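Question thread 4412

I'm putting together a teaching handout and wanted feedback from people who do this every day. The idea is simple: show students a protein as raw sequence, then show them the structure tokens that encode its fold, then repeat with a second protein so they can compare. Below is the first pair exactly as I plan to print it.
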Amino acid sequence: MGKPTIVLAAAFLLAPFTAQAQNTPCSGHKGGINHCQGNTFICNDGSVSSSKKSCPAYTGGLGMAAGLLGSGSTEMAPTETGDCSCDSGKYCTGPRGGRFCMTHEGKKSYMRHD
């Protein structure tokens, strides 16, 4: 077995581990994906994911069939009533223009700007 063969064999053996190391929307302490609000991922902890991926495309567009209860087809929108919980599909705008919604724990979860 030559040196190139060993390197190639090592690459094939390590490939499954590097694929699992990629970030996924709502990973870690966010607890996974709860549902989609338009293209935005709403996480199980009540926050929004800053992922640039499309939620319906990532989940296969299955919505409720995938167990993503409350999947909304409309994008997050500014609140008119003052309720800006992430689950409501509405967001608030801060004094410097930052868009955020409130998690289940009452913390601000900032949305990325497109």
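The second pair follows. I'd like the answer to focus on this one:
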Amino acid sequence: MGLQTIQYMFFLAVVAGVYLHLPRRAQPVLLLAASWVFYALTAGGYLAVTLCIGAFTYLCGLGIARKDGAHKQAFVRLGVIGSVAILAFFKYFGFLNAVLPAPFQIIMPLGISFYTFAAISYLIDAGRGDCEVECSPLYYLLFLTFFGTVTQGPIPRAGALIPQLRAEHRFDAQRTVRALRLYALGLFKMVAVSDVLGMVVDEVFGSWQNYGGGMLILAAVFYTFQLYFNFSGYSELARATGLVLGLELAENFKTPFFATNFSGFWSRWHISFSSWLQDYLFMPLAWADTERLTGGRLRRLPPEVCVFIVFFVSGFWHGNTLPFVVWGLLQALYRVGEELLHRRLGKPKKKAPAQVLWGKRAGVFVLWTLSMVFFRMGSGNGTVGACFGYLAGMVRGLSPVRFAGDVYTAAYNGFYANTMMVGAYYAFAAVVLALALFLDYRRCFGFKNKGSEVMVAAIPGVRRQALYLVLVTLILIGYILQNGGFAAGLGMYAGY
């Protein structure tokens, strides 16, 4: 039950309708029960794994509260190492399935990376004194398993979310309108943009040897936008969920494709994860005391080494295949290369000609898109050799005639054996992608990356109402296009 489904809309409406009218003491109980029901419906029997991680880290937190000094840090280490070990078991030991009987096969529980990282940040913050140890199992488990963030984030911080969970929440019309705006934008990004672009992406990446360079380039660009609008759309649905219930969740994306360098890109992309890496991996590495390891003077790890370690972990966190590791190392190469250029040539001027800035944005986008070939192939269990084969194919067969034929073939053979529907598909994809990028452009340059709902609220009344109508229409068409075209899609809605 994803956040973009009709079932989830009914689920959220029922939960919010009851939650906002309950006494304060009963509110977290209902929210926790709803979170467990959501996870059980979404991830089947893996709720037990989630609760075991929650119980284990909760007990480690109690140990932190009751101990001082070295004993306190021992509970931090126990909780962090134990959490990482559980995550690694599910994430990287799937190869054992070849010898295990079906009932004992290892399948990674949905969202385990997100709530495990949330638990680790809680333990480290509690050990540092940056947040209070949560002694109530009710509020701690709710922080860890809240249905708005448990499956795909954003990764919450205990110091920001738990105090909100303890507060009383009532219906607020302005807050609900903000939530509806965010939900409409998130649904548009996921259903009308990401899922529609993904139809061609799946076809081309699944049989990339059959296509020429032009189509491979288009599919790579489509995938870059597919992933971005899927994840940023989901994050806006999560924020909308929180707002309906009175909770402010952190923004996870801030128009990263308008960044002029990779430092800026990573400060805008998957912010809850990149800031987690910054706070709990990069900074400890950069300020590590290596005296005990080297037996000599106190030394710091070079920043370049820290960057490579961080991005290696990032790649390995995303997947256990070699293409993900290469993807992470490419990000490290981009980031370190950028810093070395700045050292040699000097920091770029804050104010530069527009042509220079747009050229830099284009460069960041091209390099990011090339790296995403490894990410997408890794997601499909592809090899590093296949990734390089795909990249080589992008510069072969660059013929306008072949490209036109490939564009038609990808849709006709992939999902629509109908010439009219092929044309309708590409026309729709062009319209929704243009609108989504325009909204990001307005948010970046007109509103200095304030929340998407703030941007929409500032649109004058008639035009805002027109935008709502356009978004709803495009969302409905997006649903239909993914269900066999207009005839089959309309039949699906007739049966609802």
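Top answer:
Good format. For the second protein you could add a caption like this: Confidence is low (pLDDT under 50) at residues 290-294, 487-496. The chain has 21 helices and no strands.
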